[in-house]
Design brief:
about 220 residues, alpha/beta, Arc Repressor Mutant, subunit A, Rossmann fold, 2 domains, seven-stranded mixed β-sheet
């Protein structure tokens, strides 16, 4: 992260993957350039917001020309760190862990699954796309010896904190946390919490609000 990047809000960062996804689709469709207004209509984000977001990283556009789609796609990919390979493991080889392990789009983005770990004897020895499920006792050594950057936690809440602490001691740099618990880890370890039930409750709220609005019409 550069000095300029430090002042960029997480709200802006959270929009970058969406820009990257839409630009990738435009590139695949053969679109060479696009204006902020056209991108605004496509993404349902105001053109001024798009320009403000991009100006945080230098702008990328030319007045009267718009944005070169392939160049902007490549530059946002670099900002997101997708121009290099990230090795990761999954801790928890249950249904969610196996589903994430089978998601090939991660690999297309440069995230390479190196191993899976679980404490359930029925799961140990199995595999996902040829990646073995190993016992938890082997996790610490594996992380250290294979320079693993990212750990994906798909564990019960009760064991997630202990495992996260172990991973921190092993030198892990980032955790994608699906356990329904907040992790208190040393500074420098990046944590992205994914609370699936929170997302579902948000959907329920919006559904309920929309239904009430329709009833009042």
């Amino acid at each position: 992260m550069t000095e300029n990047d430090r002042g960029i809000s997480q709200a802006v960062v959270s929009r970058l993957p969406r820009y990257f996804r839409y630009l990738g689709e435009l590139k695949d469709e053969g679109v060479e350039r696009i204006s902020s207004q056209d991108l605004s209509e496509l993404m349902k984000v105001t053109a001024s917001q798009i320009r403000q977001d991009f100006n945080n990283f230098g702008g990328f556009g030319q007045q009267g020309y718009g944005y070169n789609v392939e160049y902007l796609y490549r530059e946002i990919g670099k900002i997101l760190g997708l121009d290099r390979i990230h090795s990761y493991i999954i801790v928890g080889a249950g249904n969610l862990g196996r589903a994430l392990g089978n998601y090939l789009n991660f690999e297309r983005r440069g995230f390479l699954l190196k191993g899976m770990f679980d404490q359930n004897p029925r799961l140990i020895g199995g595999s996902v796309r040829g990646i073995p499920v190993m016992p938890m006792e082997e996790m610490d050594r594996f992380v250290r010896e294979n320079a693993i950057e990212i750990a994906v936690l798909t564990l019960p809440k009760a064991s997630a904190v202990e495992v996260a602490d172990r991973l921190a001691r092993d030198g892990i740099k980032a955790i994608w946390n699906f356990a329904h618990v907040d992790l208190n880890l040393p500074e420098g370890i990046q944590v992205e919490n994914v609370h699936l039930s929170d997302s579902l409750m948000k959907l329920s709220y919006n559904l309920t609000r929309y239904s009430k609005e329709q009833e009042e019409k």
